[in-house]
């Protein structure tokens, strides 16, 4: 039953200021028509040499910002500052209960309180970094990322970091979509449908299944699509060995050819080469997928067009040298993809999902279907950009009449 938002936030405030009872609190999401300064904020109490402090960790798109506040007036000011941000969701764990608050479109609060097993909070300051999939997880050993002792292989550290950061992006976006109602709550009868297009050896597919089903406890069915028959054989065998063959399906075929019994809720594409990313985004739009996460790979198509098309007057230096032309092609390609998705009714963020030292292909397109019509401004910006540079984006060709004119 909805209740006044100020009253519900006052209840949350009481928990946040309880330095004996608070285990951990997380603020995320956004309210209708507004956006908080931070993507996510976590609060917990830590014990330092100087005494107990409220630790506030605020996350933007690329990093975490941590501050510690003395219990009392300083902590109250920090809590009030976070509560003033227009977050759409609060999840608060205390030593005895869990409180979940969601802000409705009418700016009221839906609050659900449930008991939890009594626990002593971890007040240590230097906690080991939380991992969505711990290093000794069976799926990481099966994928060859970890060794038999459950330690990440030195040669696979970059792959582990990619998988971990991609899962973090999936977790944040999916939590927001579930809590806002954009993605329906899955059930055993209607599990969450996820498709990984261009899955290859399915590192991401298996990691997503392990986290969604094993860690989050969500009913989920995943489909991995790749053109190579050997990928179908390898991935199907591995799913059987891990005991998840009934919850995972692998298909050998092109991204544009795959037919699904049900349209997916979530579409993933990790490093699909060149225009294969466009194929994946086209299918996501055709399926009206609620959530799309795509990390593009090489960008040969636009780069080839820049080689033959004369640059706009005054911009010739950007395309004269090959390395600069390739970097410009990367930027133009993903900017155009984002604009096309916005023109197709999606809210799009273009972010760095893993540090460049782990992979040079570290851009992530995160798109959430809004349910609203196309963004006219995005369409105007798109038209101006393609006309100025005389470009023919592959995604626009693939979508054809589906792209608003």
Please describe what this structure looks like.
By secondary structure, the chain is of the alpha+beta class. The protein folds into 2 domains: 3-115, no CATH class; 138-402, 3-Layer(aba) Sandwich (Rossmann fold), CATH 3.40.50.150. 36% of the residues lie in helices and 24% in strands. The chain has helices at residues 5-16, 73-84, 138-142, 157-180, 203-215, 229-241, 276-286, 300-308, 317-320, 322-343, 376-389, 394-399; strands at residues 3-4, 22-28, 40-48, 51-59, 64-70, 89-94, 97-103, 108-115, 192-197, 220-226, 248-252, 266-270, 291-295, 346-352, 363-369. The strands form 2 sheets. The chain has an 8-stranded antiparallel sheet. A 7-stranded mixed sheet has the order 11-10-9-12-13-15-14, sandwiched between helices. Helix 10 (322-343) packs antiparallel against helix 11 (376-389). The longest helix has 24 residues, at 157-180. The model has no long low-confidence stretch (mean pLDDT 88).
Quick recap:
This protein is an alpha+beta fold. The chain has two domains: 3-115, no CATH class; 138-402, Rossmann fold.
Task: Summarize this structure as a short list of keywords or feature phrases.
405 residues, alpha+beta, Rossmann fold, 7-stranded mixed β-sheet, 12 helices, 15 strands
Measure the end-to-end span. 43 Å
* Shape assignment: globular
The largest pleated sheet is described as: 8 strands, antiparallel
| Proportion of residues in extended strands | 15-25%
Order of helices and strands: EHEEEEHEEEHHEHEHEEHEHHHEEHH
DSSP helix fraction? 25-40%
Instruction: Provide the CATH superfamily of the largest domain.
Output: Vaccinia Virus protein VP39
Number of contiguous helices:
12
Q: At CATH's second level, what is the architecture of the largest domain?
A: 3-Layer(aba) Sandwich
